[in-house]
Amino acid sequence: LAAGGPTITAKDDSFAKVKAAKTLAFGTSNDQPYAFLDDKTHQVVGIDAEMLLAMLEKLEIPNHSVKQIDFEGLIPALIAGRMDMIADAMYITDKRKKVIDFSDGWYQYGEAILVKKGNPLKLHTLADLKGHNAGSQLGTVYLDWLNAVPGVTVKSYSTMANMMQDMATGRLDAGVIDAPVAGFALTNNPAYASAFEMVSDYVPKEIGVIGSGFRKDEGSLREAINWALAQIKADGTDLKILKKWGLSEINRHAGV
């Protein structure tokens, strides 16, 4: 390791293998604005992608590869060894921690309710969804929340585009999604902006903390990423990336 690099206490060789190969493979679901391929540059960009690339620079790992998998398939693919880690806006939850390990927190945000323009059904809270059709993406904690609300007909989707299509045709009354995803979609897609809006007075049920995921037996790679994460937080790189993608100081996560 270079002088001033991470101190590794875990006994496994996951970080040593990545260092020796000079490349790291990470999994994403190609979701905007987190980690997705830019159509023009064909490079991976987004909040999580750019934070990770900054960390790899601190660790002097020059190369990377991206494994694109539907969100609900990321954890199974990680466990199966198809990637070194997950970097795709994944909430750190007790349920997920039973099967994988997480890094320290990268950043944080809450969810949003997306409805038709003008909010004709007057939906302001999760409880207001009673008697309506509501949905979210497969693999998200939002489906768990919707299933816990009595009287909601819950629908799940492999992509946000599919969910928006059902909203446009009236098969879905509301979608619960990450606030940054909703904001990015409405800002960058005029068709979405003219048809949908985020419920302005909705109070998020939870401010989730985002982390990267690792296999249970690969603590050394997790320790190295945590060290690099602390470095980009200390020099302000994390905040620059957050601001680039429409977030702010309130989305920084100071703890572990």
Rg, nearest Å: 19 Å
Largest pleated sheet: 6 strands, mixed
Helix content: 25-40%
Task: Report, as a whole number of angstroms, the end-to-end distance.
Answer: 24 Å
The backbone outline, from C-alpha atoms, is: elongated
In terms of DSSP E residues, the strand content is 15-25%
Number of strands: 13
Mean pLDDT: 94
Unreliable stretches (pLDDT < 50, length at least 5) are none
Structural class: alpha/beta
Order of helices and strands: HEEEHEHEHEEEEHEHEHHEEHH
Compute the number of helices: 10
Give the topology:
Blueprint: H1 14-21, E1 23-28, E2 36-37, E3 44-45, H2 47-58, E4 63-68, H3 74-79, E5 85-91, H4 94-97, E6 101-102, E7 107-109, E8 111-116, E9 133-137, H5 141-147, E10 153-157, H6 160-169, E11 174-178, H7 179-188, H8 190-195, E12 196-198, E13 208-214, H9 219-234, H10 237-244
Parallel strand pairs: 1-4, 1-5, 9-10, 9-11
Antiparallel strand pairs: 2-3, 5-13, 6-13, 7-13, 8-11, 8-12
Descriptive overview:
With about 260 residues, the protein is α/β, with parallel strands linked by helices. Helix content is about 35%, strand content about 25%. The protein is built from 10 helices and 13 strands. The strands form 3 sheets. Strands 1, 4, 5, 6, 7 and 13 form a 6-stranded mixed sheet that branches. A hairpin with a 6-residue loop joins strand 2 (about 35) and strand 3 (about 45). Helix 1 (about 15-20) packs across helix 9 (about 220-235), helix 2 crosses helix 9 and helix 2 runs antiparallel to helix 10. The radius of gyration is 19 Å and the shape is elongated. The two termini are about 25 Å apart. The model has no long low-confidence stretch (mean pLDDT about 95).
